[in-house]
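call fold(seq) -> tokens
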Amino acid sequence: MRLIASLSLIFGMTSIAIPQSSASDYVEQSRGLGGGVLLASASYEPDSFDIHKEYAGNLLWQGRLVFDNLVYLDAAGAATPWLATSWKVSPDGRVYTFFLRRDVTFSDGARFDAEAVRVNFERIKKLGGQSRISAAYLSPYVEGVAVDAYTFEARLNAPYPAFLSFLAQAWLGFISPRQIIDNPDSIREHPIGTGPFVLTSYTPNKRAVLIRRADYAWAPDYIQHKGPAYLDGIVIDAVSNDATRTADLQTGAHQLTFEASLGDSPALRADPRLVFSNRVRPGSPMRSLAFNTARFPFDDVRIRRATAIAINRDEVTRQLGAGEFIPKADYLGSNTPGYVDTYSKVLAYDPSRAAGLLDEAGWTKRDADGIRIKDSRRLSAELLTTGNERTPPTSVLLIQSDLKKVGIELRLKPVKSADLSSTVRAGAYDALTGGWWSATTPDVLFLLYHSSQIARQNIFGQAIRRY
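ret:
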């Protein structure tokens, strides 16, 4: 058995420098051998397994083990049947009718049917600002109707071409309606889904233990696998130390690790016992800076542009990537369906042009620290940082240094993730670290930039730039 190190990250407005996964990765190539428990590690375990509330990146793949979706995306990003066998869209694009499988149950015995879909979607809408990702994906959803036991009608307030793609995201997986209604507090640590594994033990930030569901028989048609999963179980340990995750993999204490250490990548690649996998996330790569365009100094487009092109992405990538990443100078991963490279250099490093834009904006003088001044005011902005996966701290320091060279002061202010929502809703920030958004559609840009997605009461909102 070959051990696997998996690296699936995007840093500092960069994307990963390897080919996208092939179509063969999506389908079963041959029958496998059943049995065994997979011992895996990850850099952290999410604080909660509530797929509708949580937003930690690791739950994107861990959730797939417990929850199923209406549709599944093929290698090209097109929707194919899963819990919905087929669907139709009204001529005006505002009503989606889904025809559901009739043999699916949740692990608590509850039936998966049109009412289960309705209860889940209504829960997400009612969560409002407590749901950062799921509610964003469902933002045009107005109401659902159980036409009959296995026919569900989703009614939208506007045409939504990305709807099917978003319905395939793990964040819109289904939780038992019985649990949602009778015991919603239990979802955090003991969620009940229809997926191929059941979460039997979960300690946030420490360990997740899953066992195979023996009666699972509704894997997506596209992956060409019939019946339950091969593994008897999966144990996922949170191991925050990079060196420890690597050592545990090399000694066989774990057979799989996620977020493999960048610094260890040469050794991992060279080890004949290991398979090193580095994958591109489609959608929006890491956005190192997200400007508040409604507030000084980034209410001036010239300052925004100057800031963007004053960042040396080559150097940031070289410092962080250990040869695994390349700079990305536009807004979509190149493996996102529909991607074209028309604007692939729009954010390219150009400090001379950045200086010219600042001069044009009237910031021609500098103080003793080299920071530009105008009317006795410094060209200074505060960046709220949360660290962790949103933007690696090292990249923030490199960006701060780059901006100072052109005369922009970037002051760093750490903020707790728990306080971020209220800060964003109040618009009380100059800039944020931007995070990443994985989605197999270019319409992810709608969620990140459209004015309807600005944070407000009962809506977390992802359009933190406030256009």
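The first helix runs from residue 59 to 62.
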